[in-house]
Specification:
With about 190 residues, the protein is of the alpha/beta class. The chain has one domain: Rossmann fold. It is built from eight helices and five strands. Strands 2-1-3-4-5 form a five-stranded parallel beta sheet, with helices on both faces. α2 packs across α8, α3 packs parallel to α8 and α5 packs parallel to α6. The longest helix is centred in the last third of the chain and has 23 residues.
């Protein structure tokens, strides 16, 4: 089935319009990240597939820069080290690939930011559980239902859609908003 561009664009616009009320949760997420960074802590970001790419994008915006010249902010995408990813997956199982990293890295006061369009990815859920056990603030970006992720996160953004492509498009818009808020606060 091939859909016309106008139909895809209309669907995208509907999803974005459905996020008009997301400002309050996004502001709380930004404030949690700002508090973490001001306390000298770190942000860990992770997800699978397209969400892994988004995790890397978020870490790059925070560590590098988004729009303003400012100091580097300690943000790490747990999706980038091929040796860790393959060793943990091979030796312990893929469901431990992010959790194991957080076992070794996360401290109380850090932020663990999970991206999962379904909210049901076992490796993402395991990581959020470990992060919470270690005292990290947990942030989730997910789709309409939130899956199991909704029950585990301190702060959760639900995108009002069920299809991964539309959810991820909305995630990009939302995390750019968060990065802009964080950067503005940390550039002062």
């Amino acid at each position: 089935m091939t859909r016309e561009w106008k139909a895809i664009l209309a669907e995208h616009q509907q999803v974005v319009s459905g996020m008009a009320e997301a400002a309050s949760i996004l502001d709380r997420i930004a404030e949690a990240i700002i508090a973490c960074l001001r306390a000298g802590k770190r942000v860990y970001v992770f997800g699978n597939g397209g969400s892994a790419a988004d995790a890397q994008h978020i870490a790059a915006e925070l560590l590098g820069r988004y729009r303003l010249e400012r100091r580097a902010l300690p943000a790490v995408a747990l999706t980038t080290d091929a040796s860790i990813l393959t060793a943990v997956s091979n030796d312990l199982g893929f469901e431990h690939v992010f959790a194991r990293q957080l076992e070794g890295l996360a401290d109380a006061g850090d932020v663990a930011w999970a991206l999962s369009t379904s909210g049901t990815s076992p490796n993402v859920l395991a990581a959020v559980r470990v992060a919470a056990e270690r005292g990290a603030t947990t942030i989730g970006f997910t789709g309409r239902t939130g899956g199991r992720l909704a029950e585990l996160c301190t702060h959760l953004l639900h995108v009002p859609h069920d299809d991964a492509d539309r959810i991820q498009e909305a995630h990009v818009l939302a995390y750019h908003y968060v990065c802009e808020r964080v950067e503005a606060a940390m550039a002062k």
